[in-house]
Design a protein that fits this description.
heterodimer, A: mainly alpha, two-stranded antiparallel ribbon, 18 helices, B: 193 residues, mainly alpha, three-stranded antiparallel β-sheet, hydrolase (chain A), P-type potassium transmembrane transporter activity (chain A)
Chain lengths: 568, 193
């Protein structure tokens, strides 16, 4: 452990919170339709959009209408993105003349970007045209993040409205989140990143005569614009194969700091937004606190394991960190471990180090965060609604233990909400475990493995956890561009996204109808440090009970064998 | 249902125009105006011709140049159209064998003892395969070799390495590092190649 490493991590966390608090307040204003400084620009634009689309912004939808609009919009997104990918050879902004990809890869990628996963079974610089990356991927980087915010805000409305039918207007939530939160932040972010060296050009790839010779072709592209929303939207799909390890995506330690801030700003801010919207900032703080506890635990595990390093490499006789395989010199161990924790705490999935080459326990923490359901702040919107699922579970479990009626924010938690909350937790867990089980007994699954021994199981577990949690990072040695992996992961990404969103919108609808009971002596307090501790405890216990056996066979046994000096 | 689909389609189209076309083009315009050097790839020139990007590592094997890190990008390494790492796991025998071979080679090239410790970044592949940097320690052990190949004094080369050693950004961010291409360009300028 080095002082400078701790200083960097501490600095990051402080800046993050300092920026997230005002952002949380601003987002609450935007989502509640209050006045903000962007009204003059965005107000008329929004009106125009609503008129052209035939949307009545005053319309208040019940949960079924809300869910219907969301599903239709997203499925349409998958279909149009699929078509765009297949036709890219005939479309403009394609200086490298890249053609159509195989249908299973196109489908996997379309589902991947629409579900905010951004799993990439291809190498972008040799597969995707500038047009596909801009008009396809960048658009869904915005739209999928805005969809996440919409679901979160609909759920908050359900928790706060009294005896109401409606939970808001999906079109309005989507449009306002995009134009007033994601777009301004991305514009600013793209320029900041470019100041550090992130490229932004539509020129074709450049071939240079190198110093020693012979030559090198530099893949270029409109990177900065996509990079910013890739992070702000917790999407994570790299413009290049190496993602945020690529120097054109993440050139300096400062750009790296910015990128880690961009990833967590909105998810952390939304916990404060929640406090403002329920008119009790303590309710937001308690959720923030629970996620922060988990974040620090996971960071300690990743960093501790990476700095302890790989004794098998150490034996060769080295100076410097032993776990430098798959890491960049400018980031070193500390910034690689911090980035890996940040990117999997949220559903981002951008990487600045190759996770496949992390030490076993260093790779366990990212995997575990995805398995927990991306609730360590989580993805944009998705993190907050998944955290609220666990709040409902916690209130219920604690209510049973102390013999009080489970209620949250004055609303009774009853059978229907519990069933839906349990579904939202079970569906992704089942996807991960059943998917990995299937892959590990089928030759179509195991033939894609890059690493032997327990690490191979980790590769499969990681892939399904990443798909189901809509993260998108990978143990990238796995050759995922096969029919089996493309199709099974497309299914898991789809179910992992909408299998959580639909139960939650149902909860929103049913909670909206309820009365708000006044606080009494029988009310269990959901504010304060005790509840933060309970909430993070429930998240960990549910996760551990579900996944410990699988993790024991993968990263845990590999770590023990590595310490024992065994290689495969 | 049909009306919803119609609204969704038009909204998606408008969002594509705003976030997929207008936004990247506006950023391109602004970047080309404010940060043209960065936006076009931070290119470095020699005799007026671009020789590469300051951000993208190149393959150096000649004894007179400082060598970068092992690269898994493309078939032969440092292929800037095929970025990526080795993705070898920590207990993979291939990783350990490759690292061992590279250590032996580094020792041989630089005339070190068979058990001399080697900077770890010189025996491990980077994440991008295009890492432009090495650690100051990795530059230091190559100084004597480069000096000999170029008929320069060790002190002179070491001074150059020191000048091209970047400290942590703002004093505390990231790690100290040496940009291999910039250093080698400076070497060429020094010896008039």
């Amino acid at each position: 452990m080095k002082i400078n490493d701790l200083a960097q991590m501490g600095f990051y966390l402080v800046i993050l919170v300092v920026l997230a608090i005002p952002l949380g307040r601003y987002m609450a204003k935007v989502l509640q339709g209050e006045k903000t400084f962007l009204d003059k620009v965005m107000g008329p634009l929004e009106k125009l959009i609503y008129r052209v689309c035939g949307i009545n912004p005053e319309e208040d939808m019940n949960w079924r209408q809300y869910a219907g609009a969301l599903i239709v919009f997203n499925i349409l997104g998958i279909v149009t993105l699929f078509i765009l990918e297949m036709l890219q050879g005939h479309l403009p902004f394609n200086p490298e003349k890249l053609g159509a990809m195989r249908w299973d890869l196109a489908l996997n990628t379309a589902v991947s970007f629409v579900t905010n996963t951004n799993w990439q079974a291809y190498s972008p610089e040799s597969t995707m045209s500038y047009f596909t990356q801009m008009a396809g991927f960048t658009v869904h980087n915005f739209a999928s993040a805005a969809t996440g915010i919409a679901v979160a805000v609909a759920l908050i409305r359900g928790l706060t409205r009294r005896q109401a039918q409606a939970i808001g207007n999906f079109w309005v939530d989507l449009t306002r989140s995009t134009l007033r939160i994601l777009l301004p932040l991305s514009l600013l972010g793209a320029l900041l990143l470019s100041s550090q060296g992130v490229i932004q050009t539509l020129s074709p790839y450049l071939t240079v005569h190198t110093l020693q010779g012979p030559s090198q072709t530099l893949a270029l592209g409109p990177v900065a614009s996509q990079e910013a929303i890739k992070l702000f939207g917790t999407n994570g799909g790299g413009f290049f194969n190496a993602n945020s390890a690529h120097p054109f995506e993440n050139p300096t330690p400062f750009s790296n700091l910015l990128e880690m801030l961009f990833i967590l700003l909105i998810p952390v801010g939304l916990t404060f937004t929640f406090g403002h919207m329920v008119k009790d900032v303590r309710q937001g703080r308690v959720i923030f606190g629970a996620a922060l506890i988990l974040f620090i635990l996971m960071l300690a595990l990743t960093y501790g394991s990476e700095i302890a390093g790989n004794p098998l490499i150490g034996k060769i006789g080295i100076t410097g960190a032993s776990a430098m395989e798959g890491k960049e010199v400018r980031f070193g161990v500390a910034n690689s471990a911090l980035f890996a924790t940040v990117t999997t705490a949220t559903s981002c999935g951008a990487v600045n180090a190759m996770h496949d080459s992390l030490t076993p326990l260093g790779g366990l923490a990212p995997m575990l965060q995805m398995m927990l359901g991306e609730v360590v702040f989580g993805g944009v919107g998705a993190g907050l609604y998944s955290l609220l699922t666990f709040v409902i579970l916690t209130v219920f479990i604690v209510g049973l233990m102390v013999g009080r009626t489970p209620e949250y924010l004055g609303k009774k938690i009853e059978g229907f909400e519990m069933k839906m909350a349990v579904l939202a937790v079970l569906i992704p867990s089942a996807c991960i475990l059943l998917g990995s089980a299937l892959a590990s007994i089928l030759p179509a699954g195991t033939s894609s493995l890059a690493n032997p021994g327990p690490h191979g199981l980790s590769e499969m577990l990681y892939a399904f956890a990443s798909g189901s949690a809509n993260n998108g990072s990978a143990f990238a040695g796995l050759n995922a561009n096969t029919y089996f992996w493309n199709l099974s992961l497309a299914l898991v990404m789809f179910v992992g996204r909408f299998g959580v969103i639909l139960p939650l919108l149902a909860i929103a609808g049913s909670m909206a109808k309820k009365k708000i009971a006044p606080v009494s002596a029988g009310t269990f307090q959901t504010t304060g440090g005790l509840f933060s501790g309970l909430l993070s405890g429930v998240v960990l216990i549910v996760g551990a009970l579900t996944f410990f056996p699988a993790l024991a066979l993968g990263p845990i046994v590999e770590q023990l064998l590595m310490w024992a000096g065994k290689a495969f | 249902m049909l009306r919803t689909a119609g609204r969704a389609f038009v909204l998606l189209l408008i969002m594509t125009l705003i976030t997929g076309i207008a936004y990247p083009l506006v950023v391109t315009g602004l970047d080309q105006l404010i940060f043209p050097h960065q936006a076009n790839g931070s290119l470095l020139y020699k005799d007026g011709k671009p020789v590469g990007s300051a951000l993208i590592g190149q393959d150096f094997t000649a004894p007179g140049y400082f060598h970068g890190r092992p690269s898994a990008a493309g078939k032969t390494g440092y292929d800037a159209t095929s970025s990526g790492g080795s993705n070898l796991g920590p207990t993979n025998k291939t990783l350990l064998a490759e690292a061992g071979q590279r250590a032996a080679e580094v020792r041989r090239e630089n005339g070190l003892a068979a058990n001399a410790p080697v900077p770890s970044d010189l025996i491990t592949a980077s994440a991008s395969g295009l890492d432009p940097d090495i650690t100051p320690a990795a530059a230091r052990i190559q100084v004597a070799r480069v000096a000999k190949a170029r008929n320069l004094s060790v002190a002179k080369v070491q001074t150059l390495v020191n000048r091209y050693t970047e400290r942590r950004q703002f004093g505390f961010l990231g790690e100290p590092r040496v940009n291999v291409l910039r250093l080698n360009l400076a070497l060429d300028a020094l010896t008039g190649r």
